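call fold(seq) -> tokens
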Amino acid sequence: MKKRSQQSQFHRSQVGRAQRYIRMNLNGTLTLTNIAKESGSSSYHFARLFVAYTGETPFDFLRRIRLTTALKMLQEDPEGPITEIALSVGYETSSAFNKVFKKVLNMSPSDFRNIGKEAQYDVIYDLSKPRQQKEIAVNLSSKYEIVTRAATHFVFLQNHGPFAEIAPPTWNEMFPLVFGQVDQKKIVEYLGLSTIDKTKMGEEAMIYEAGVALNTAPDKILKGLEYKKIKSGKYAKFLLIGPYAQIWIAFGQIFKTLAENKVQLRQEFCIENYINDPKETPEDKLQTELLIPVM
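ret:
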């Protein structure tokens, strides 16, 4: 089981490298072969791997990221020529861009510019979210508990971008920084925090923080890390049992449940509290508390 868990983490890392490579080469020549090579996998296995972990093919992902980038450009520069935007995100002609735009979003680029900032934000955010397979069943508690968390000393690393993509590398970067500077006896929880900053646009609005809760505030500045005190507050607590890759599917279900129950939310970060050690626990036994700030 431990070997399987390590293999799964390795595969997620390969997919993450491929996603970053695609993002950095939107207007370049991208083939399955060179994307797979960048990820460290063969073309045949890579295509299957990518779909298994993301719910979309590499080229579905490429199309989605190209369109997301174009949407942000259309929003930020209302007078910018559509042809220039199309070319800058990798389309050879504006007609090809318009065709894909219409097919995916059921509107034209000009229509998008005319729907208003709030509606534009919703379209960008929806398209930015990973395309998870709808048929995946998650072992999520059907009922939630309202709990009050005490104020928490939190040391963390922050990144911006789609949560499911940015979370794994943020954790990987955070661990050596924390373990090299923090006495592990002071660590009381491993927490992931996420929120949407509506004052920002596109993927910059998605904020993810990976870090540790400490029993006291750090007594010195920690290199490469930030510190804040999370205020005491009420949360709706759900329990997820299963792979971490299912966290973002679970959050989608959670927000629907809370909306159906007309629960009022607070403008604070959502929290993932990791209960057990993924190095020692099989993926299907991992437990994660998912906490949503409520009034």
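The chain has a mean pLDDT of 86.
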